[in-house]
């Protein structure tokens, strides 16, 4: 059995703990490989010594691995989505960020998680993803997102117009700074900041949330993720910003964007007590009341 370790090459509070994480993995009897750029960073900082196998995005056969361990925050874990692709390989998120909503496992819990991985006695949250298609094939083969798709104005202070169709029926024409199409996983991220609802994973929905809409009657709407959305953007600018999680590109006026559910799930290993509802309570202070 083999584990892939992924991290970003910048300073975080867990970098100094990587040798201990590596030691725990070896103690549990797993072989491993470290993301090449992260390995180079750790060596430059004299954090990691010894010879370890490495992998890069271009040469990794992720199906050779039992799981991938992400060391960082939620943003780091989101970066692993394009490495995992449709392989079904599960991901463990060790939190070194600030909130750690989906990357929530501490080092103290990691050894127990490894034991469940070794015995096969672990459970995964199957998280749905969005798939985005355009005529120019903007995002290539990595045209999917775990959190959200966002359309946003770019290089202008003027609002933009986004026409949205749901299963070819007009849903709305949004005059706003932008539009978010969020999965349940992403509903606690940008969507929440813009007044969108929290959606529990597994509910088979997505939420369409406008960003600063110029209309008091326009509110977020929850739709089935079995439906298909078609978007068309226009405005005073020559181009607009389109993002999938942390990846971004430009979209041009009247280009059409097709959004649907991806045909695979992202599998997230979550120990007991790390479910979505408990994360809402512990990370977002959901339901916090001094009377209780």
From TrEMBL:
Keywords: ATP-binding, Cytoplasm, Kinase, NAD, NADP, Nucleotide-binding, Transferase
Active site (UniProt): 74
Top-level EC class as recorded in UniProt: transferase
Protein localization: Cytoplasm
Cofactor: a divalent metal cation
Main subcellular localisation: cytoplasm
GO biological-process terms attached to the record: NAD+ metabolic process; NADP+ biosynthetic process
This protein's record includes keyword Transferase: yes
Stored Pfam families: NAD_kinase, NAD_kinase_C
GO CC terms in record: cytoplasm
Binding-site positions, NAD(+): 74-75, 147-148, 177, 188-193, 212
Reaction equation(s) it catalyzes: NAD(+) + ATP = ADP + NADP(+) + H(+)
Keyword check for Cytoplasm: yes
Organism domain of life: Bacteria
InterPro entries: ATP-NAD_kinase_N, ATP-NAD_kinase_PpnK-typ_C, NAD/diacylglycerol_kinase_sf, NADK
Listed GO MF terms: ATP binding; metal ion binding; NAD binding; NAD+ kinase activity
Enzyme Commission numbers on file: 2.7.1.23
Family statement: Belongs to the NAD kinase family.
Function: Involved in the regulation of the intracellular balance of NAD and NADP, and is a key enzyme in the biosynthesis of NADP. Catalyzes specifically the phosphorylation on 2'-hydroxyl of the adenosine moiety of NAD to yield NADP.
Protein name as it appears in the record: NAD kinase
